[in-house]
Automatic annotation (TrEMBL):
<feature type="transmembrane region" description="Helical">
    <location>
        <begin position="253"/>
        <end position="271"/>
    </location>
</feature>
<dbReference type="Pfam" id="PF01925">
    <property type="entry name" value="TauE"/>
</dbReference>
<feature type="transmembrane region" description="Helical">
    <location>
        <begin position="222"/>
        <end position="246"/>
    </location>
</feature>
<keyword id="KW-0812">Transmembrane</keyword>
<dbReference type="InterPro" id="IPR002781">
    <property type="entry name" value="TM_pro_TauE-like"/>
</dbReference>
<dbReference type="GO" id="GO:0005886">
    <property type="term" value="C:plasma membrane"/>
</dbReference>
<keyword id="KW-1133">Transmembrane helix</keyword>
<comment type="similarity">
    <text>Belongs to the 4-toluene sulfonate uptake permease (TSUP) (TC 2.A.102) family.</text>
</comment>
<feature type="transmembrane region" description="Helical">
    <location>
        <begin position="186"/>
        <end position="210"/>
    </location>
</feature>
<feature type="transmembrane region" description="Helical">
    <location>
        <begin position="55"/>
        <end position="78"/>
    </location>
</feature>
<keyword id="KW-0472">Membrane</keyword>
<feature type="transmembrane region" description="Helical">
    <location>
        <begin position="152"/>
        <end position="179"/>
    </location>
</feature>
<feature type="transmembrane region" description="Helical">
    <location>
        <begin position="29"/>
        <end position="48"/>
    </location>
</feature>
<protein>
    <recommendedName>
        <fullName>Probable membrane transporter protein</fullName>
    </recommendedName>
</protein>
<feature type="transmembrane region" description="Helical">
    <location>
        <begin position="118"/>
        <end position="140"/>
    </location>
</feature>
<feature type="transmembrane region" description="Helical">
    <location>
        <begin position="90"/>
        <end position="111"/>
    </location>
</feature>
<keyword id="KW-1003">Cell membrane</keyword>
Length: 272
């Protein structure tokens, strides 16, 4: 693809700023991983600037994951200082998370954009439904005792998160909550999962996309380095603002509004 025009660059930059700002605010307000916001906006911004969907979806997912490497470290450290990261749970789920995420990053290259959009859309519908519930769904009093079953759940979480371009919280917090893991511990440990998901997944996306033609300038594989540089200041800077607002306002109505946003996003992804 040729060089982008000034209008294209402005449109892409505006999309990145909006996505990063919304991701940071939602992460602080609701504890929702920013990828669920970043990926669709990045995808639409890239297609708006005439990148083909086959490249745009992969770039959106990989760039979102690359930004999560940095944001998850900051989040995990903050939660760990408050004693909210469960190291036992991290050891139990960590290997499966890494294996699933690496598999997702490497295999995404062989999955076309329509299929990735379908994965994102279906999972976004489930996340929206979960956010619309008045309270967390609980199906068991504790996590299963079998390590193999925990490993399978962790690997599935890592795989789907990598294919969606999201961090640890969006999928793992509802799963852990369903097995009666206390919310503060689930959210804190999920922030560390984000790093374990993002690093191997990004490695897979970089390797898989290294020789793919038609990518934006200054890309490492499917990761837009410019995109990451634009996203980080806004997503990291606005997360504390969202967290402060969460202590001052009732977030229940924000959860419902965000659930509607996810519903519309999912339908747009699924229906093209």
């Amino acid at each position: 693809m040729g060089a982008l025009s000034a209008t294209d660059l402005a449109g892409l930059a505006a999309g990145l700023v909006v996505a990063a700002s919304a991701a940071g605010l939602m992460a602080g307000l609701l504890g929702v991983g920013g990828g669920i916001v970043l990926v669709p906006v990045l995808f639409w911004a890239l297609t708006f600037t005439a990148f083909p969907p086959q490249i745009a979806m992969h770039m959106a997912i990989a760039t979102s994951l690359a930004s999560i490497i940095f944001t998850s470290v900051a989040s995990a450290r903050a939660h760990d200082r408050r004693g909210a990261v469960d190291r036992g749970l991290l050891r139990l789920w960590g290997p499966g998370i890494v294996l699933g995420a690496l598999t997702g990053g490497l295999s995404a290259h062989f999955i076309d954009a329509d299929a990735l959009q379908a994965v994102f859309g279906i999972m976004a519908l489930l996340v929206a439904a979960n956010m619309a519930l008045p309270r967390a769904l609980v199906i068991a009093p504790a996590l299963p005792g079998a390590r193999a079953l925990n490993g399978a759940m962790a690997a599935g979480t890592g795989l789907l998160s990598a294919l969606m371009g999201i961090g640890g919280g969006t999928l793992s917090v509802p799963i852990l909550s369903a097995f009666s893991v206390e919310t503060r511990r689930a959210v804190g440990t999920a922030s560390a999962f984000g790093f374990l998901i993002a690093v191997p997944a990004v490695a897979g996306f970089v390797a898989a996309g290294w020789h793919v033609p038609g990518r934006p300038p200054l890309s490492a594989g499917y990761v837009s380095l410019v995109g990451v540089a634009v996203i980080l200041p806004f997503s990291i800077g606005l997360a504390p603002v969202g967290a402060a607002l969460a202590h001052r306002i009732d977030t229940a109505w924000i959860r419902r509004i965000f659930a509607v946003f996810l519903l519309l996003t999912a339908l747009r992804m699924l229906l093209g």
